[in-house]
Amino acid sequence: xxxxIDGYNLLRSVQKAEDFKSISDVHLCRLIGRxxxxxxxxxxxxxxxxxxxxxxxxxxxSNLEVFFAGLATDADHVIEDKIRANTAPRRLTxxxxxxxxxxxxxxxxxxxxxxxxxWDELQKQLSRKRTTKEPTEKRRGxxxxxxxxxxxxxxxxx
Length: 158
What we know:
With about 160 residues, the protein is α/β, with parallel strands linked by helices. Helix content is about 45%, strand content about 15%. It has helices at about 5-15, 25-40, 75-85, 100-105, 115-125, 135-140, 145-155, and strands spanning about 5, 45, 65-70, 95, 110-115. The mean pLDDT is about 90.
């Protein structure tokens, strides 16, 4: 399910949390990128304004495209346009606590998630311990033929 995020709306929500008062827009985007990669989704985040002169910090963020609305409009209108233009809005997740954005999402039957709820889910997913599956060979050991191959390879034939 593709995700569209209201950038500064989420950032302000995150900054209310004690541990994240000084989080930057770049750091937020990197966390969102990790989260989206983890859940196997792609997303877009839209910020108001033109953003910093050097946008290099936003490069190479996996699974997330970063946009700035510019001076002629704001992120809310850009998000509303993206919702209207989407060909499969029921598969779309919109992250914002803005009422007008929520109305636009609900009108197209997109899934609406408040910024605080999205942030809580992101933190839960990123803090989970990931276990990697051990190869079965580690537990059962090498077969007799594999053992013979290694002994021969190292010149330790019996």
